[in-house]
Amino acid sequence: MSSQIYDCIVIGAGIQGSCTAYYLAKNNKKTLLLEQFVLPHSRGSSHGQTRIIRKAYEQDFYVRMMEECYTLWAELEREADVKLYRRTGLLLLGPENGRGFPIVKDTLQRNKVPIVVLKREEFSQHIPNFNLSSGDGALVDTTAGVLYADKALVAIRRLFKSHGGVIKDGEKVIGITPGPVVTVTTASGAYQAKKLVITAGPWANTLLSHTGLELPLQVTKLNVCYWQEKVPGSYDIRNRFPCFVQVESLESEHHIYGLPSNEYPGLMKVCYHIGKDTDPDGRDRQTNQDDIEILKRYITRCMPGLVPVPAVVESCLYTITPDTDFVLDRHPTYSNIVIGAGFSGHGFKFGPVIGKILYELSTEQVPSHDLAPFKISRFQAHSKSAL
Ligand SMILES: Cc1cc2nc3c(=O)[nH]c(=O)nc-3n(C[C@H](O)[C@H](O)[C@H](O)COP(=O)(O)OP(=O)(O)OC[C@H]3O[C@@H](n4cnc5c(N)ncnc54)[C@H](O)[C@@H]3O)c2cc1C
Ligand SMILES: O=C(O)[C@@H]1CCCC=N1
């Protein structure tokens, strides 16, 4: 056992753990970040080159968190001297009389987020190569854009180390012994800290089982699909093609979303928000492609400038709560253990604000946002405590 007692150990170096560790170290806390895989890796939820950043949400609390988060991303860009965000706007599409589109529109307007509402007759002039479905409304959240995810992870971990933080990768945590000083065991050793933050993504419940807690989390595998432009440049970021989210469609009641051609030349990323249940360690055995069939039909109908067969298919994991809101809370039994989990396929953009909140929780400060929507107690009927 190492004789050093850290102020805090963070388990999991995805976007949430890396951001939490960064804010701890920046605020002079002796911090150890443990990661089971050798970094960088592509086995969790944070890998890949791009993610959407947007304020377009149904709930005011997410809009308020994003207001601060844009500032935090800009501070990170400055400190790391790396460009992590590119503004593209986000095209939001959905039935005018549906469940999702009017709510997001109202929320954006109520929160005075700058948007442009596109009339049907002017739609194709602004958004070429896209068919607006009959009955659908369209608006652009002009604050939205693309985050360079892999670059962000590298930059944040580098900043963490520059503030004195220690990363040990390739060290899987196999035991947690709670107490006023928590002991965390890996195959290579044991470490102690006054505080522990668990940000283990799809493995959250495996880690929490060492503390007698189980959260209602569902892990799913998503096919990340890239589609070839028929005419090069038609959906290109350099030609100002936006990100998009289709909230309901003829093909599905669930989101279909896309990012302009950028990371792979001539390929636009278009994905379906619903995957199939998986075991995070057995994901390669889960080969369901129902999502790809839905995407093929949508692309044929709405994006005729793309070849409706995916040119590249990668994979990624979601960890979903029953209400798709995050878990940001202290452990119900051990108040020096803080949990960030269940980011439900939309957590990357919030990385810096979540890192700041988990840092605040683990240093007993008043959190800078209302955490009522993220409390473990909301799952009372679901979560199992063996204690
Ligand atoms: C296809 C796809 C598209 C997405 N698109 C968007 C988007 O456009 N915008 C957006 O905001 N969000 C998006 N998301 C969601 C976002 O990427 C996730 O919410 C976010 O990455 C979750 O981060 P995390 O740190 O919680 O999990 P992870 O990145 O999985 O990190 C958890 C880490 O913990 C480590 N770990 C687990 N167990 C142990 C252990 N025992 N010991 C040590 N380490 C351990 C894991 O190896 C992993 O590195 C998308 C997700 C996917 C999959
Ligand atoms: O979080 C995001 O912006 C993306 C797009 C919508 C569905 C989930 N992830």
Automatic annotation (TrEMBL):
The keyword Flavoprotein applies. It holds the Pfam family DAO. Its cofactor is FAD. Residues 7-361 form the FAD dependent oxidoreductase domain. It is an enzyme of class 1 (oxidoreductase). One of its GO terms (biological process) is L-lysine catabolic process to acetyl-CoA via L-pipecolate. Metabolizes sarcosine, L-pipecolic acid and L-proline. NCBIfam families: PRK11259.1, soxA_mon. Belongs to the MSOX/MTOX family. This is Peroxisomal sarcosine oxidase. It comes from Clupea harengus.
